[in-house]
Write a sequence for this structure.
């Protein structure tokens, strides 16, 4: 029995390392799979899907807001749609081409903006952002939850 315990104690750290690596591999694989599944799932269907869709989004008409310019912008414009996002979020990546397209269509009428909630966490917390993407519709500076479609 003593020799069994000695062998077990000497191989136990190896077992723990192998167990840790194997369980984390599955978690990492699952997260990456979720991220890849979220990329290119826009319903427009004309982009061909894939990683390049989220990487090469032309969001020139989407305004980038942060702590320094947020309050002034949403209070000086009567209507503003703001997306709070996280750069690593698969759903945010899927929304990006739709958001950019909608911003171009609505340019001059209703500005579309985005806030990186991982950088501007206090701003996101101020508006109760608990998941990504969260879209708020500001009317005269007052936020309302946006519950409409997430397509352009």
């Amino acid at each position: 029995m003593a020799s069994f315990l000695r062998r077990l104690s000497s191989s136990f750290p190896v077992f723990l390392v192998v167990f840790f690596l194997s369980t984390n591999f599955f978690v990492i694989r699952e997260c990456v799979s979720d991220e890849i599944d979220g990329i290119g799932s826009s319903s427009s269907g004309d982009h061909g899907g894939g990683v390049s869709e989220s990487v090469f989004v032309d969001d020139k008409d989407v305004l980038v807001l942060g702590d320094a310019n947020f309050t002034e912008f949403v209070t000086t414009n009567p209507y503003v749609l703001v997306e709070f996002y996280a750069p690593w979020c698969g759903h945010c990546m899927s929304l990006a081409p739709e958001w950019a397209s909608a911003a171009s269509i609505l340019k001059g009428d209703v500005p579309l903006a985005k806030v990186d909630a991982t950088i501007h966490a206090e701003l996101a917390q101020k508006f109760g952002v608990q998941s990504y993407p969260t879209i708020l519709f500001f009317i005269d500076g007052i936020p309302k939850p946006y519950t409409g479609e997430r397509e352009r």
About this structure: The CA atoms of residues 79 and 139 lie 5 Å apart. The two ends are 70 Å apart (CA to CA). The first strand starts at residue 63 and ends at 64.
